[in-house]
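Please complete every field before forwarding. Incomplete forms are returned to the sender.

SECTION A: IDENTIFIERS
Entry label: holo-250
Bound molecule: NAP
Molecule representation: SMILES string

SECTION B: INPUTS
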Amino acid sequence: MKYTVITGASSGIGYETALAFAARGKNLIIVARRLDKLEELKLKIQEINPDLDVVILTSDLSVTDQAYTLYNDLKEYQMETWINNAGLGEGAFVADQKLEKVETMLRVNIESLTILSTLYVRDYADVEGTQLINVSSALGYVIAVGSVAYSASKYYVSAFTEGLAKELELKGAKLKAKILAPAITETEFANKSIDVKEFDYKSSMPKYHTAKQMAGFMVDLYDNNEVVGIVDPNYDFNLRGPIYPILEGL
Ligand SMILES: NC(=O)c1ccc[n+]([C@@H]2O[C@H](COP(=O)([O-])OP(=O)(O)OC[C@H]3O[C@@H](n4cnc5c(N)ncnc54)[C@H](OP(=O)(O)O)[C@@H]3O)[C@@H](O)[C@H]2O)c1
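SECTION C: PREDICTED COMPLEX
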């Protein structure tokens, strides 16, 4: 049995991505902190397709030890695809940002993503048909004033994953590493980034995608051989090659 692992599957893009992969007949391993939301998702998936196996794992990825534990707990499964989607933002100017939240953000967005990517690459580089998809952001390619630390964390995700994709290509590995770079997407993300109860996307944002649309783009990226799937300033989704310059041969 093969599985698709999705971190941050309890809401937003991860939740909809789980439903989209379930619609494709993929068995799922869904990860987040909120068990009730994951159980609700599992029920929904089983309504779509009762034959699918859905494994729930709770993990707090702001504690990097838990990233190692998560991976070790999954060693017995055959993981065809690993999607590092869990993430959070801090929408504040640097001088005003909440440092505790920023520390948590860097551990989830950067440290746990790096640990999980590395462990997955070690085991699956030579396994046919495998993919590692890391969720960055359009702000991983343009610096957002007012969210500089978040933007920089996504620059890391993009640079790390584009570099990894190149290393895998040079080694002739079978595993593909890819980046999804969404722009504004209607999820719980804004509520948590700026600490509001219910951010009103409709009245506040001229353009945005729904989480379901973004999950559709995730599937498009999965189906394609390009490394980057990015939403452009016109809110069109583009599949393309790596964006950062690469230095080889050091
Ligand atoms: N929405 C946007 O506008 C937008 C734009 C560009 C990129 N993104 C990126 O898209 C990804 C998904 O975000 P979203 O928009 O879907 O936001 P969301 O609705 O807030 O979902 C975030 C997910 O990450 C999980 N998560 C957060 N902290 C975690 C932790 N400490 N340990 C484990 N899981 C944790 C959450 O689960 P629990 O709370 O249950 O743990 C939740 O499932 C993020 O990487 C985000 O940076 C979002």
